[in-house]
Amino acid sequence: MKWQILVPAVALAAACSAGEANRDTAYRQTDAAAADTTMAAAPDTTAHQPAAALSDSSIVTELAQADMAEVQQARTALTESKSAAVKTLARRLETDHTAHLKQMRTLASKLKVSLPDSSSVPAAPELTGKTGAAFDSAFVQHAIDDHQKDIDKLQNTMLPAAQSADLKSLIRTTVPKLQAHLALAQSTERKLGS
Asked: Going by C-beta distance under 8 Å and a sequence separation of 6 or more, which residues neighbour residue 53?
């Protein structure tokens, strides 16, 4: 008699345990599916927030390095090019970017940002090993491409991210200068083409 009562009780307990395990598994699957749906429905905000990742320090450093690269490339063009138009562009880039670099150093000091020296700036690979007309063409094309990218980045990424009023002001005054460089580089390109 004890066995008759005990066997159904064990079977019932086993069934209940199996039911709980199945119910727990079902809950876990439902929770996982809900989490996947939530993750899928949530917008990817990281791809659209590059400005938030930039600090004043990183902006100042990047701008100073860009100036150093421009000065270095312009000096190379002044020694390598035989074209009067390319030398005119190179002189303008060297003069303006040297002056801008001086402003960046002053701002970096004010914001307590340590800048790398110009020896850490790599040479532009698109200019390496080129001479004559090939160098002139590559230098001018690089100036066009670089200034277009820089103008876009300053206006659409760096300016919105900048916190310092001095940095915002410097960015706003830099954009027209870069636009003038871009126009001169495009004009130089047309001269080389003719």
From this structure: 161
**Contact at 8 Å (CB) between 78 and 90?**
yes
Averaged pLDDT for residues 101-119? 93
Encode 37-69: b = buried (16+ Cβ within 10 Å), e = exposed: eeeeeeeeeeeeeeeeebebbebbbebbbbbbb
> 54-193, which class in CATH?
mainly alpha
Per-residue burial over 4-15, b if 16 or more Cβ lie within 10 Å, else e, is: eeeeeeeeeeee
Q: Give the pLDDT band of residue 53 (cuts 50, 70, 90).
A: confident
Amino acid at 169: S
Instruction: Answer whether 136's CB lies under 8 Å from 83's CB.
Output: yes
Beta strands in 23-118 (DSSP E): none
Give the start-to-end residue ranges of the domains of the chain: 1-32, 54-193
